[in-house]
Automatic annotation (TrEMBL):
Region (Disordered), start-end ranges: 1-123, 165-184
Recorded GO MF terms: RNA binding
PANTHER family the record matches: EUKARYOTIC TRANSLATION INITIATION FACTOR 2C
Basic and acidic residues compositional bias, start-end: 53-73
InterPro entries: ArgoL1 (IPR014811), ArgoL2 (IPR032472), Argonaute_N (IPR032474), PAZ_dom (IPR003100), PAZ_dom_sf (IPR036085), Piwi (IPR003165), Piwi_ago-like (IPR045246), RNaseH-like_sf (IPR012337)
Domain (Piwi): residue spans on this chain: 743-1058
Domain of life: Eukaryota
Annotated protein name in UniProt: Piwi domain-containing protein
Protein's organism: Trichoderma gamsii
Length: 1095
């Protein structure tokens, strides 16, 4: 991964967090400044990969980072973009050469180039037979009534808070702060001040259907399932619940048990109506009468087996689900007495959960036809399946298209959010066809290519569910469900077969044997004998087996039950969590990237079939789903003007067009600390790799000076111009430190796929404290001004410079009285955890502004408990450090106002942010300010991993990629008036479907007191215009820089810990034992701690 323009493909990250995947791909490419923007189109939702914990925040939306490339004179214009959150990578591809950079995007949710969108409809606007429905006038009227009532009731509060003016000096360091902030009960989850009014009105389609609910009450039971122990076959303690010794019943096993329960309930009461998620919840229309509780049911031990296993299911409940209370609330949005409900969020979760269970029951019922993944994603595997095989690396994987659904509350109505989603599954079908498609055969040790294929294929076989088709002695064809243990493998037999009386035998040098190469023992009248698998099946079944590898259907206790491929069929719909290789990522992105029109069309038609939204069974619950997508009212905000220096070093204005601009004839706004001593080296990743000469490096230094960057034009000569990765990297860094080098340019001989980037950043950022800049030789060597400028913008940021700023200041930022903060947490997923090792840590990224230019955002990062989203008390320490940093750059005073963008928590965690993180922030302020004067705080959560999408209703309001235009904001129609939130699409999504960022205000002590009913417009404007201040791009990014930078800091923290995060795929056959690597003390070097080292 190099510090460069165009994003190469990274891996996938994301796991479902409430249905949403977490893929942040995309590729906004700014001209003259490539960077990793979070822009671009949504490249399909890919569940799996790197998750961030529960709720909406799954990083599973398969968003890759993509390739951009703005076209125009010396930059400017449009380019290609990848998934939603990926590289705003500088374009500069016009007449002045073509600045495209060659970087690897390490995004959340994966990386990857965007590919050309081949799906139809890029120039079409969605409609229903030429008609566009206007937004519901009654809902608009209700929204206006409720927000007016809220505004009236809060007038007194606004007046009171507005009086909290600065009166004197604050804490240590000088003037600052305000009187003690108002009660949190009055400011947490603040009501919407008003709907925004700025911008050009526009009507949009939203990926929501209205849900109609006739009934007022449901009943919910919880079910506790246990397996009845068999005297003849005692159950394994593996997977037992902690402290019970009982093995947990889950997954496919639990699904069949719940199906048996439903059948028995219907047998006992022919009028029984129930819905379940086939785990532990049961929704009914009325309380049920149980003949026995616990209930006992029997289920086949395995699919197709005649042997039955007994289970007990104990019912608890029922709990009454008051749908009528929710209906009343949606038409009034009134909190309970004394504001008791003010900080209860989300509202009516038990009702929403019941609706989701009812809507999901039917598609979950047929697990062969539809694969249900997580709580909200459904993939068809019947005749309507849409899949793409990922055969690039001989792994039995396939990409599949499916649909997400989740009900949500909105003003005056319940809505169903539906979206296209993509996932990675095991290939399904006859094993012989799969082997033929991958060109796999049994292999001896001398066949290196065949062995390579087999090792890759074998990695994903364990636990794969298959059908085993065979004939009984009576000639009856039987189909049994089994789980594959792996391929027949000589090395494993050599290890584990030593204690067996008659272990399988392999022909000499046959590692993965076929039917003719493997013998097994059969008992006979004369004491038994060895026979080849081929001969056995020829004699018993008259089968002529081909030389496919054999499959092991044994268990860990009884391994080596070898079966030929001709008798095996992989069952459909088996989702798999795995990091994809670069080639697989490319194929997945090609498959997932679709135009907005195509996605809207699929949601309005195919999704209804897959999700069975028109199934008559919904009527039993009084539930129906409207046939048409909703329309909502949006607004398009004006783009701000950005400021640079011209060649005379005077400020000059640049006006963005289509969310992008160029740097023709301008320089960076403010150079950083002069880089007096810098050097370079060619890093060879393989023998005889091409190298870049000194003349190119000299041209690069001259170009940086021309950009206005403060740097010595001529670099110091390195001790050697070419070094080898393994042998010389540590030595060169020691030389850098000893010679006071401030910037080290590493020219990689090829794109990094082996963790070299992580090693370089670990050494530079943590061990030696030297800024590093990685470039790819074949791109750097061309001497392109565009490529040089892409990297140069990052160099200026590392040195403390400001590349550009906004022309119009915000009133709350004037006079240097406000600090803006962003922080984020990233979690480990899909990592090959060693047996006995602890979980990898979660990582926190924290950034904050230091002045009114908002061009410098120094960072902090640290580890915390694995998969813990809420920050610990260490947040207090970090906040205090950054208050001091701000004070150092602002005359020794502390900020009066602190605006925080907290990235990526789910809606279910909003209250936790207020209850657990806000106190830590308050504590930091108490320690830095005087007791009488505390800063005002506004805390906004920014979420990108959600499933809301908007589509243009007219070609007149459509971008060239078929998306809504940049600057589009939506704050009504799909929101709740009671809460203050909005969806913002700041960027121009150049490919795929644009994913807006969703912002929710959890705490406000700044905007309403100062701006009253215009507070919404002011916060929307600030957030939108911040998106134009991403320092590495000349393009608006899709989520505001404080949140975006915090995410990049998390990514860099991962690079600092290659022991954990640079590992690849899980191979269950080769897991080893060992302790966890110790990385707790690994911190950014003191030399770089107050810089943008991470950029």
């Amino acid at each position: 991964m190099a510090d460069r323009g165009r994003g190469n493909r990274g891996g996938f990250r994301g796991g479902d967090r409430g249905g949403g995947g977490r893929g942040r791909g995309g590729g906004d490419r700014g001209d003259y400044g490539g960077g990793r923007g979070r822009g671009g189109g949504d490249r399909g939702d890919y569940g799996g990969g790197r998750g961030r914990g529960g709720g909406d925040r799954g990083r599973g939306d398969y968003g890759g980072r993509g390739r951009g490339g703005d076209r125009g004179d010396y930059g400017g214009g449009r380019g290609l973009s990848g998934g939603d959150r990926g590289g705003d990578r500088g374009g500069y591809r016009g007449s002045f050469s073509g600045f495209r950079g060659d970087g690897r995007g390490r995004g959340r949710g994966g990386g990857g180039f965007a590919r050309r969108d081949e799906s139809p409809g890029k120039t079409m606007a969605f409609d229903y037979n030429g008609k566009v429905h206007e937004p519901d006038a009654e809902i608009t009227k209700l929204e206006n009534q409720i927000v007016a009532a809220q505004s009236s009731s809060l007038t007194a509060l606004t007046s009171q808070m507005g009086k909290l003016n600065v009166k004197g000096k604050g804490g240590k360091g000088g003037k600052g702060g305000n009187a003690a902030p108002p009660s949190d009960m009055l400011t947490q989850f603040p009501p919407r001040p008003a709907y925004g009014s700025n911008g050009r009105p526009v009507t949009l389609w939203a990926n929501y259907f209205k849900v109609n609910l006739k009934l007022d009450t449901f009943y919910k039971y919880t079910m506790n399932t246990k397996k009845v122990a068999s005297a003849s076959k005692p159950e394994s303690k593996k997977g037992a619940k902690a402290g019970t010794g009982e093995k947990e019943v889950k997954g496919r096993e639990l699904l069949f048990v719940v199906k048996a329960v439903l059948a028995k309930l219907l047998e006992e009461d022919k009028k029984f109506v129930g819905a379940t998620e086939f785990k532990d919840a049961l929704i009914t229309l009325k309380p049920i009468t149980l003949s026995a509780n616990p209930m006992t049911v029997q289920v086949p031990r395995s699919e197709g087996s005649d042997e039955m296993v007994s289970y007990t299911v104990e019912f608890h409940g029922p709990n009454e689900i008051r749908v009528d209370d929710m209906k009343k609330y949606l038409t009034s949005m009134a909190d309970g007495p004394a504001g008791a409900d003010a900080i209860s969020f989300p509202r009516f979760p038990e009702v929403v959960d019941a609706i989701n269970i009812i809507l999901g029951h039917k598609p979950r019922s047929d697990h062969i036809k539809t694969a249900a993944v997580g709580s909200s994603r459904f993939f068809p595997f019947g005749d309507d399946k849409i899949i793409k095989e990922l055969n690039q690396n001989w792994r039995a994987l396939a990409a599949a298209r499916g649909y997400f659904q989740s009900s949500r509350l909105a003003t005056g109505r319940v809505l169903l959010n539906a979206n296209v989603t993509h996932g990675v599954f095991r290939l399904s079908g006859p094993m012989t066809q799969i082997f033929d498609g991958l060109e796999i055969r049994a292999a001896s040790k001398g066949d290196n290519m065949a062995m390579r294929k087999l090792r890759a294929f074998a990695k994903f076989l364990p636990k794969t569910r298959v059908w085993y088709n065979f004939k009984t002695a009576e000639g009856k064809t039987v189909r049994r469900g089994k789980a594959i243990r792996g391929l027949a493998n000589w090395s494993e037999v050599a290890k584990k077969g030593k204690t067996m009386a008659h272990p399988p035998k392999f022909d000499a040098n046959w590692e993965y044997g076929g039917p003719k190469n493997v013998q097994f023992w059969i008992d006979g009248d004369k004491g038994g004998r060895y026979v080849t698998v081929y001969d056995y099946y020829k004699q018993k079944y008259n089968l002529n087996l081909k030389d496919y590898p054999l499959l092991d259907l044994g268990t860990e206790q009884k391994p080596f039950t070898y079966v030929p491929a001709e008798m095996i069929e992989i069952q459909p719909g088996q989702v798999i969590k795995a990091s994809l290789t670069m080639d697989e990522t490319t194929a997945m992105l090609d498959f997932a990237c679709r135009s907005p029109y195509s996605n809207a069309l699929s949601i309005s038609t195919a999704s209804r079939q897959v999700l069975e939204l028109d199934d008559p069974s919904l009527e039993n619950f009084g539930v129906s789903v409207d046939k048409h997508l909703l329309t909502v009212q949006g607004r398009v905000l004006n783009a701000p003007t950005v400021v640079y220096l011209n060649n005379q070093r005077k400020t000059t204005d640049v006006r963005p067009l289509g969310g992008a601009w160029n740097m023709r004839s301008v320089r960076v706004y403010k150079p950083g600390t002069k880089i007096e001593r810098w050097t370079w080296v060619n890093l060879s990743l393989r023998p005889n790799a091409p190298t870049i000469g000194r003349d190119v490096v000299l041209a690069y230094g001259k170009f940086l000076v021309g950009m206005g960057i403060a740097i010595n034009e001529t670099p110091l000569a390195p001790p050697q111009e070419v070094i080898a990765y393994n042998a010389d990297l540590d030595k060169i860094f020691a030389w850098l430190q000893n010679n006071g080098i401030q910037l080290f340019v590493i020219i990689l001989s090829e794109k990094d796929t082996s963790g070299v980037y992580a090693k370089i950043k670990q050494l530079g950022d943590c061990t030696y404290g030297v800024h590093t800049s990685c470039v790819v030789g074949r791109s750097f060597g061309k001497g392109s001004p565009g490529y040089f400028a892409n990297v140069g913008l990052k160099v200026n940021l590392k040195a403390g410079g400001v590349n550009h700023r906004l022309k119009d200041e915000f009133s709350i930022l004037k006079d240097g009285k406000a600090m803006i903060v962003g922080y984020d947490v990233t979690h480990p997923t899909n990592l090959p955890l060693k047996k006995g090792a602890s979980e990898p840590p979660s990582l926190v990224g924290f950034v904050s502004s230091i002045d009114g230019d908002l061009g410098q955002w120094p960072a902090l990062s640290w580890e915390q408990t694995s998969r813990q989203e809420m920050l610990s008390s260490k947040l207090t320490e970090a906040f205090m450090l950054r208050l001091d940093t701000w004070s150092k750059h602002n005359g020794g005073r502390y900020p009066d106002n602190i605006i925080i963008y907290r990235d990526g928590v789910s809606e279910g965690q909003f209250s936790l942010v207020l209850n657990q993180e806000l106190p830590s922030i308050r504590e930091a302020c108490r320690k830095k300010y005087s007791p009488q004067f505390q800063p005002k705080i506004t805390l906004v959560v920014s979420v990108k991993r959600h499933q809301t999408r908007f589509y243009p209703s007219s070609t007149d309001e459509m971008s060239k990629s078929g998306n809504i235009v940049n600057g589009t904001i939506v704050d009504r129609g799909v929101t709740q008036t009671r809460y203050w939130d909005f969806f913002l699409t700041a960027h121009d999504a150049l490919q795929g479907t644009a994913r807006p960022a969703h912002y929710t205000v959890l705490l406000d002590e700044i905007f309403r007191p100062k701006f009253g009913t215009k507070a919404s417009d002011e916060l929307e404007r600030l957030t939108h215009e911040l998106c134009y201040l991403y320092g590495r791009a000349t393009k608006a990014v899709s989520i505001c820089p404080p949140a975006y930078y915090a995410d990049i800091v998390c990514e860099r923290a991962r690079a600092h810990r290659p022991e954990w995060f640079e590992q690849k795929d899980v191979d269950s056959q080769t897991e080893t034992t060992g302790g966890a690597p110790s990385t707790v003390g690994r911190q950014v070097h003191v030399n770089l701690r107050d810089s943008m080292y991470y950029i």
